[in-house]
Fold each of these.
Amino acid sequence: MAAFEYTALTESGRKNRGTLEADSARAARQQLRAKGLVPLEVGPATDSGGEAGARMFSGSPGLGVKQLALLTRQIATLLRAGIPLEEALGAIANQSRNQKIRRIVLAVRGKVLEGHSFAQALSSFPRAFPKLYRATVEAGEHSGHLDAVLDRLGDYTENQQQFRQKVQLALIYPMVLVVVCIMVVTGLMVYVVPDVIDVFTGTGQELPLATRMLVALSDFISAWGWLVPPALIAAAVVVVVLLRRPAIRFRFHHRLLEMPVIGWLVRGAQSSRYVGTLAILTGSSVPLVQAMGIAGGVMNNEFLKERLQRAQKSVREGGSLRKALEDVEYFPPMMIYMIASGESSGTLDEMLHRAAESQERDLQGAVTAFVSLFEPVMLLLMAAIVLFIVVAIMMPIMSMNQLVT
């Protein structure tokens, strides 16, 4: 049986869309008519996208991180309970209230019933199940430990989702603070400062430098402030368009790695993702050279991806993983040391996993500290701006008092 998407009319004339299983499109139409529906469109449930745009455990148009993690965990749990794969997929589809997940799971189940492997069935939905996911599932099928492999994938996706949610929640208050700061300062500069400054300009006295700067800034915001948001949007669009060019994106990613603070964060995130991917793949019996190719393909930094292709070539020619990653020059020394220890002791899978966990903890600690510092920095910046406005207004008043005395 295969999965079919349909669009049908109810007795009241409303359109109804969904997914059902049938041996053919004709059988699917007969099922719809038996339910009192008038079929308008019936077709195979397939993914409309291609491999382009698929990213490892990202919010892709197919499935989000949370949805993918939950689906993976459900399949692993049912397989561990001894339920056959096709029955597990059917149970998940029947209890799912999300039509998108139901459509995808039923389509995958249909492929499995047709005789395809689970990994081949997942390849029909490359946006929902990225390359790493499919390669790991394929390795799990070959090794006969699909449930354990899916459990590991579920752990990884859940950890990534939890960390992302933690950062997003921590950024809510600082972002609100930034918006309030901008609104307060803009209101002061547009509605309060001009009226106050008019009092001093009418006296004919020379205004202090700080006050003149405040007046110029207030005039600019009043006259041209409405152009700032469109200009920022236009600048962002230009940057996005330029970064679509491979040569410019390659140079930008290289510069990004060399920046003082941001570069360290990018290097940590990329190295953690790469080594974590290697740990999952090699632990699922994927050959090291093939695992390096898959792990390099899920990297976001083009410059680092090119360096890792050289590392893969070095390992393919008989070099060690430690030496190959050391030549990349952007992996933390501790991570390189742990990988070397794993190679020499024959426990590379375990040491890759530990190295990824260690780097992930360091990165999460750094990001958490950075987000924690962002709030007081914004408070200090807002206080400094308000202080400058107050001083710029008070200086002419003090000058007038001195003239009177």
Note: The chain is about 75% helix and 5% strand.
Amino acid sequence: MSGGSVISEDPEYPEFIDPHNELEDTETQPRYRPDSLRSLCRATRFTEAEIKRIYRGFKAECPTGVVKEDTFKGIYARFFPQGANTSQYAHYVFNTLDQDRSGLLSFEDFVHGLSILSRGSLDEKLRWTFSLYDINGDGRITREEMTDIVNAVYDLMGKYTEPGIEDNAVTSKVDSIFQKMDRNNDGVVTLDEFLECCLNDEDITNSMAVFDSSI
């Protein structure tokens, strides 16, 4: 988990409880805060006012100052229709944001990911998406990894837009995408192959635009 420093009371941020001792007596534990506003502004595309607003919402949902995966899944589920199976896709998103695989998201982890998805360049968004599909983090996307993500997407939304979707439809979708991306037919998609394909595919480029927003 990135960022954070041990401090006493700070007027700019409410304090963070040490995430590794969140079940302990908070009176005796060191407390944490995010990196300074100035450094977060430099690292993201948010203004100081926006970061303060995002932080207030973050702390309201996560009073300990960090997010565990189960909490993240619960928050994520609120953005989708009741009954949608968001758990698996939320798991993959959490892992993508949790770059050091600590099992906890700090405010820095959260705001950096949000900055990329809402204000990042197309290249940055595509690189983030690649890391989402690259489930084991080895720098390559396998057909199995792509299948897992596509299945998670259909669980998330597809069954509402395409009721009764069959496994062979998922397989067909993956085969089509994979064939397009795997330029040298070696059975894996590298970052370079992924970027080249996406940047030359208008449909994919347009789909990335849905993340553009003002917070």
Note: The first strand starts at residue 5 and ends at 7.
Amino acid sequence: MCLLPLDERHLATAVDLARAAVGLASPNPTVGCVLAHGETVLGKGAHHYDARDHAEIAALKQAAAQHHDLRNATAYVTLEPCSHHGRTGPCADALIAVGIARCVIATIDPNPLVRGSGIAKLRAAGIETIIAAPTSALALAARHLNDAFAHFIQHKRPFVTLKAALSVDGKLAPPASARTETAPHWVTGSAARASVQPLRHASDAILTGIGTVLADNPSLTDRSGFPRRRPLLRIVLDSQLRTPVESALVTSAAKNLLLVAAASAPAEREAALTACGAEVLRINLSNDHLDLNALFAELASRQLLSVLIEAGAALNGALLRADLVDKLVLYYSEQEFGLDGIPFAEGFESPYIMQQRLTRSRRETFANEPTEDIRIIGYLHDPWSRME
């Protein structure tokens, strides 16, 4: 449904409130709410998991603190108000109780058990309830903020984003002979690299393989500077626990480093690494490799909704072959690494072929004098496809 210009402005503010709460709501959805009489804003709020209140309740409390009368007001919410009891009571009931006249919603709830019930409850109470068109910019923005929640609530598995920086000929890195040991080779410029930090900030975990750790000695930290309610969990697939105790990951372990190992990994290596603050998770092998499905089931049990992959060709290929990647974020520079360069993913000819499968894809550019870097973003599995 097309929204009035005033509705669009208030709903855009609600989206901005939700966006500012990224990293603070997981494992719940990220939601913003604005309560208004015409141009006058009466209350605003966003959901922060540790504060318990949903966005609607936070906005209602702000309005109450200023003694605003909410009768005949409009509520603007980025996600359908809930209709069930969880950690808090139903937001739909709270909005009905204060006498609002209208509710404008960016997108409906992706939870198949409650989808549409909040809207039905509002309409049954005589409240005009408007849902933005699913292809509108505001609906897409609200959905993007909750891709991980939508996927998790439907599939009970973390939403997986694979990010890679590539040369123009689709390679991850120059040949090993051309690289310096344990030092990263920067493929893209500083602007493109800086844009990775918001991706990390929006993720619950980041996953790489032991090959990347040994080659690059990465820290894999969230350096966005934005607040988050729980640390970014850094995960390394390391079947034999070869991660060096002096590596950047281990020396900054601080209980947010998970090393995934096989049962056969040496006990003395586990003891040395756990003494430094790392956690070791042993999982079974599948076809002589660590069982990725078992790993993601474990992450789901920990309420980790989203995982960002920053890995090498072997792990990229394994994840793609297992159809476990939901979204691709591919950066391209104008460097060329040639036929001997490290491929994007083992078993895949080119990332350009993979791009042809993407839906809702978009292209962005980053200045990198005298050239520019390109970012391609798109979905292999759209978590909102069942909502159309």
Note: The two ends are 13 Å apart (CA to CA).
Amino acid sequence: MKVVVASQNPVKVSAVQKAFSLQFPECEILIDSVSVASDVPDQPLGEQQTRQGAVNRVHNARASTAQADFWVGLEGGISTVEDEAFTFAWMAILDRSGKLSTSRSLALPLPAKVMERVGLGEELGNALDTVFGTKNIKHKGGAFGLLTDNYLTRQSVYIDTVFCALLPFKKEAYL
């Protein structure tokens, strides 16, 4: 089974590989990663913009690499609810027939000092690196790993979210 991931971030690629392997244990999963535009700001804000980034990525990946069984777009974003900021991600999966499924991750509260940096125009990963003295955290455990002492990681959260986005392609209840 060929799966095209609309990212070259090793954390995202690995999460997609693991989720597909869990959902399709009988298949050999071949991953191709491509860098494509999200057509949303580098730091998406709000549910709609973040979900749209994932959907745009999945369609742009299909346009980039037409021969595959599935295309996967992943987009992390930030949302504010009653003055509390959260980071989360949307996953979009498209199959050869054009069926689209999306799923959203859990939300992680963000510290005010990180949001101050985001408010100055920094992407979340860069803001975390600045505030916590990390280097390239978005290619490692991400905000989830950093703020939960690796109880959760960006990869573990993304595995679960991709796994859920795959349910409509696997479970009889959705077919």
Note: The first strand starts at residue 2 and ends at 5.
